[in-house]
Amino acid sequence: HFSLSNDVMFHWDNQFRIKGVSPNVERILGYKPEEIVGKQFHELNVLDPADLEEAIENALLLLSGKKVYSSIFRFITKDGAGKFGELSEVPIIRDGKVVEVISVAREITERIEILESLREREETAQALLNACTDSLLLLDPSGTVLALNDSAARIMGKSVKEIVQSPIADHVTRDVILRRKPYFDQVI
After folding, report:
1. Residue 85: exposed, middle, or buried by beta-carbon count in 10 A (0-12, 13-18, 19+)?
2. What is the pLDDT of residue 3?
3. What pTM did the predictor assign?
4. In whole angstroms, what is the distance from residue 52 CA to residue 63 CA?
């Protein structure tokens, strides 16, 4: 059953030695279980060096008996490609000592790439809005501010972050709303 999952399940001891791994690790990272089991995690070189410090901090937390519910790391596949994985890990405690850690790693590369693409698009849209010196606002039909430029935020005496995703009525006077409502209704 584990081999059908998109999650790689593995467990390691308090010496950082991999004790077992689900067979689907080969499909996800390209390594056969026997290439991994019995080795210490740092020997495998499957973790991006930029994430190593955080992984060690998490391992020390786990070995102290705490749980780590979600961490995102970059992994390196056997063929050298990069993949993102989200890990959930819990310690197994016997006689008051952590003897093993159970880890579940879910491959989330596509999700991370989509989020990065959305972030880049948002930055581009904000740059386009800010290129104009006039006040620009993008509202949804209910009057919630979806986007605005720095000029509009300055006029309202707030930051863009303070205004986005809130009702425009929270940021302008009732008189302004009444004057602008016919135009707003026409556009909608």
Report:
1. buried
2. 67
3. 0.68
4. 16
How many angstroms separate the CA atoms of 145 and 125, rounded?
Answer: 14
Partner residues linked to 12 by β-bridges = 18, 101
Contacts of 177 (CB under 8 A, 6+ apart): 168, 169
What pLDDT sits at residue 57? 93
Please give the Cα distance from 156 to 136 (Å, whole number).
Answer: 12
pLDDT in tens, 35-51: 999 999 888 889 999 99
**pLDDT tens figures, 80-108:** 999 999 999 999 999 999 999 999 999 99
- Identify the burial level of 164 via C-beta atoms within 10 angstroms of its C-beta, where 0-12 means exposed, 13-18 middle and 19 or more buried: middle
Q: What is the pLDDT of residue 128?
A: 82
Reduce the secondary structure of the chain to three states and give it as a string.
CHHHCCEEEEEEECCCEEEEECCCHHHHHCCCHHHHCCCEHHHHCCECHHHHHHHHHHHHHHHCCCCEEEEEEEEECCCCCEEEEEEEEEEEEECCEEEEEEEEEEECHHHHHHHHHHHHHHHHHHHHHHHCCCCCEEECCCCEEEEECHHHHHHHCCCHHHHCCCEHHHCCCHHHHHHHHHHHHHHC
* Torsion sign, CA atoms 31, 36, 42, 47: positive
Extract the residue ranges of the chain whose pLDDT is less than 50: none
Q: In residues, how long is the chain?
A: 188
